[in-house]
Design goal:
The protein is of the alpha/beta class. It has six helices and nine strands; from the N terminus they run H-H-E-H-E-H-E-E-H-E-E-E-H-E-E. It has a single domain, classed as Rossmann fold, CATH 3.40.50.150. Strands 3-2-1-4-5-9-8 form a seven-stranded mixed sheet, sandwiched between helices. Helix 1 packs parallel to helix 4. The chain is globular, with a radius of gyration of 16 Å. The chain starts with a helix and ends with a strand. Bound molecules: S-adenosylmethionine. The site of S-adenosylmethionine has 22 residues, from helix 1 and helix 3.
């Protein structure tokens, strides 16, 4: 199976334990939201079980969440029936230009093959409004593409795109973004993958 579809099908098998382990919003989400206008429209790319979407919706932002895993989306819809969640491949985003004030992609680009990331960032740039803001949470480190044993289901292999800061910075700049902030932290909880967590906020 193709790498990114394969990742989503793994999430179909681990949706429940994932939802139990990861119940807090992304670490620097408030820093991202602080850069957006009141009631901003935000696309949550690879929204999973909807934790970030739910948090942002509770702060009166207008959210659309997309994900390819039916089981992750089922949990998101149960928890946050007020949010518009859609089953869609990140690489086939088809919103009109200037649709969103913000795009959040928390730990989802990590499942997209490197060859597809430039087109995706170009698309993000297109669908963001002028001065729009993007938030990426990534697995950072020496650039590589690998399959790992999924921590919740070690008999399943999960595709990972490990991205160095220079790599994502260059791709963002090439696609018309300027970096606003970068944060890093080491993994803490048992369920977290054993890579440096890299967070990047950039502006159109
Ligand atoms: C590590 S989870 C992150 C979920 C959520 N953003 C969070 O931070 O908890 C990765 C999510 O990306 C989704 N995903 C992976 N590849 C995708 C693709 N090509 N299109 C849409 N979603 C994808 C998976 O189904 C999964 O829900």
């Amino acid at each position: 199976m193709e790498k990114s579809k394969q990742a989503s099908s793994v999430y179909d098998k681990i949706a429940e334990p994932y939802a139990k382990e990861f119940s807090k919003p992304s670490k620097y989400i408030k820093e991202f939201l602080a850069l957006l206008p009141k009631n901003a429209k935000i696309l949550d790319v690879g929204c999973g079980v909807g934790v970030d979407a739910g948090f942002m919706s509770s702060k009166d932002f207008e959210i659309i969440g997309i994900d390819l895993s039916k089981k992750m989306l089922n949990i998101a819809r149960q928890k946050f029936p007020q949010i518009n969640f859609r089953k869609q491949d990140i690489r086939k985003i088809d919103f009109p230009p200037n649709s969103f004030d913000g795009i959040l992609a928390s730990c989802s680009l990590i499942h997209i093959p490197k060859k597809d990331v430039p087109d995706l960032l170009e698309k993000f740039h297109q669908i963001l409004k002028k001065d729009g803001t993007i938030y990426l949470a990534l697995q950072g480190g020496k650039s590589e593409e690998i399959f790992i044993d999924e921590p919740f289901k070690p008999d399943e292999k999960l595709f990972l795109n490990i991205i160095s800061f220079d790599e994502i910075k260059n791709l963002l700049v090439k696609n018309g973004f300027s970096i606003v902030k970068k944060y890093e932290r080491e993994p803490k909880s048992k369920g977290e993958l054993n890579y440096t967590k890299l967070y990047v906020i950039a502006k159109k």
